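Q: Start with the shorter request: fold the first protein.
A: Done. Sequence, then structure:
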Amino acid sequence: MEPSNIKHAMTDPACIYSMQKELLQFKRLDVWELVPLLDNVKALTLKWLFKNKHDKENMVIRNKTRLVVRGYRQEEGINFKESFALVSRMEAIRIFWAYAPRKPFIIFQMDVKTAFLHDTLKEDVYVCQPEGFNDADHPSHFYKLKKALYGLKQAPRAWLDKLSKFILHNHFFKGTIDPTLIIRRFDDDILVVQANPIEKYLKEVKRIFCYLQETVNIGEKLVSWSSKKQDSMALSIAEAEYVSLSACCAKFI
C-alpha cells in the first residue's frame, strides 16, 4: 500500500530507502545548496510523492518516490518570469506513427531519468528542507536551488532550454514546421525521419544522447494500448483513424 503522508512513509524501510535514493540523486546532480535564508525572501515548501510500481500479478516491484515543489504558491514576477515551453502536438506524433510502417521507418524511444533535475535555473529560488531529512547542524537553513525541481512553474521551460542547447551543439536542428521535431543529417541521408535507417547512424545518435545522464533507451515498443470500456469499439475506431492518416500521408510525402 502506498503511504499517504511522510509520517506513514517513515515507518516503511522500503520508502525510507527510496527517499534516500532520491536525495542522493539531488546530490549527484548538484541540485541545491544549503544556505541561510535572506531577509524578505519567502521559501517554497516541498512535498514527498509516493507511487508503487506493480508487475502483472499486482505485486510491488519498486517503490518510487519523488520530491516536488509546491509550485502553486509561486508568484509570477517574483518566483519566476517565464514558464512557457513548447509541447509536441499529439496529432503530429500520431501522423508520424501512422506513416512510419509505410516506408518502413524504425522508431526508437529514449527517456531521460529525472529530466528536470538537469536544468539550470535563471531565477533565485529557495525551498524549505525536505520533511524528515532536516540537516542536524543547520536545521533553520534553507536550500537555494541550482537546478529545476518538479512542480516549479519554470521547470518545463528550463528543460527545453537545456535540451535545445544540447542538441544544437551536437549538429541537430529543429524542424521548420514543428520546432519540437529534431533532425540530424548524415551526408546524403537523414535521421530522425529517413527511408532507409542505417544502424551506425542510430548508434551515433544513441551515443550522443547518452551524454545526458540517466538517458534510457526504451526500444521499439513505444505504445501499449488499453481501454477499460468497449475494447473492440475503441480499437476499431483507432485503427480506422490511423489507416486513414497513413493513406493521407502517403499521398503527400
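Q: Next, the second protein, separately.
A: Sequence, then structure:
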Amino acid sequence: MPRVLSLDAHGRILDWMHWQDAVCLYVRDAVAWTLGEPCMTVHGGINRLSGLQSTVDLHPIVAARGRAQGKGIDPTPALTNTALFARDGNLCMYCGHEFRRQALTRDHVVPVSRGGRDIWENVVAACCACNSRKGGRTPQQAGMPLLAVPYRPSWVEHLILSNRNILADQMAFLKNHLPRRPPRPAH
C-alpha cells in the first residue's frame, strides 16, 4: 500500500503517513488541500439510512488543516543504521561492493577512540571485513580511501531514501523541495 506524504497547512513537508491515518484526516474533515490524482479508494461501511457504502478517495499528498508548524520539523534526520545504509546505497564505502543490510556496519571515519563523533558527516556504511581491516585508524592511516564523502542528508533526501514505493506525484513534489547544490566548475 502506498504511503501518503503529509504536509502542514502551509505546505511544509512533515513525513510519510500510513493510508489509515490519512483516511482519519478525511473523515474528520481535517484535510486543507490535496495534490495529485487519487491513488487509492477506501471502502467503508453501509449507511443505514441511504443503504450506500461510504468511500474515501485518497490523494498521494495531503495537507492537514489546523495551525502550521511554527519551526517545522528538525531538518536533520535521525542517524540510524537503516538511514545510513540507505544514504550509502547499501554499498561499503571502502570496497564498493553492495551488501544486504545485515552484512553492513556503521564505520566512524575518524574513530570514536580518536575523538571522532557519531554524526552523519563522520560515518559511512562498511562491510564487516573492511570495518575490521580499518580498525581504529583513519582511512588514510589504513590506506583505505573512501569512495564517497559522508554528508548529512536533508529531510527531503531522507524521505526519498526511506520510502521504496514513492508515487510519481510525490516524487515530483519532493524533487522540487530538494536543496539546491551549486553547480561544479568545469575542469
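Q: Describe the second briefly.
A: The chain has two domains: 4-74+162-175, 88-142. The longest strand covers residues 40-46.
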